[in-house]
Amino acid sequence: MLVQVQELMKEYKGEKAVKDLSFQIKKGKCIALLGPNGAGKTTTLNMLAGLLQPTSGTIRFGSDVADVRELIGFLPQQPHLFGWMTAVEFLKFSGELSAMSTQELQQRIDLVLAFVGLEKAKKKRIAGFSGGMKQRLGLAQAILHEPPLLILDEPVSALDPTGRRGVLDLIRKMKNDMTIIFSTHILHDAEQVCDEVLILKDGELRWDGTLTDLRDSLKTSKIKIKAREPINGIFEEFSEKVEIEYVSDYEVVLTVEPNTNPNLFWQKLLEHQHTILYFNANQATLEEAYLEVLTR
To answer: Which residues pair with 199 in a beta bridge?
Structure first.
């Protein structure tokens, strides 16, 4: 176990931003911290990173070190970069703050700049960097001292699609060498790179588990049907177990239990000699499961 969080709470002026959070971070995992704006994601990560003191609760690291900050690499939502510095100068400055030796820095700076794709820009002023380049430099800073735990706060939220894809690709590669927890409100990002998810709402933990288990937790799924002939009334015999929503005379959305056999409805259409134009009974989406968890 890399990190054990127990009954973590943070209060601001009588308001609880985070309420009795308990979870574990296992070594080698990539965890997405999901939740709407104001859910407490940034507050939680700041406490994990040692930047914010909890009101109560504990954060215990598996390693016995005098200062746990040497175990952590941190990229805030809005990294503070010095525009007048070059990429090399900024990383040298960051490494010195982490008490890295001159020899270590010489070896690591070129390695991390190459890893994030900034080797050709290493002597350019940061002020001239694009948003994606700045975020990649922030990642380089966070992994410079090879921390076991990497904490990323909304690492791609401000980037365009190209920049987003580039940073997510880097996170995917970094999974091989370190444990990662990153916050996002974009489900697709979590689906792309993560093994497990934590879902927060109003400072409370609503889900702790794998993406597969999150999908499987959905209590209902939807079947969308469109026919050439009117379909009103065809499915009424199932109304006790199925929620029926007619989009039009020719389209219907059936809300069913996840283990319901969709062939029942296909067969019913054929019995009425209807021409099926569209029949979608795909597995529940991550978004549907996420939204259901938030409403529980």
So the answer is: 34, 207
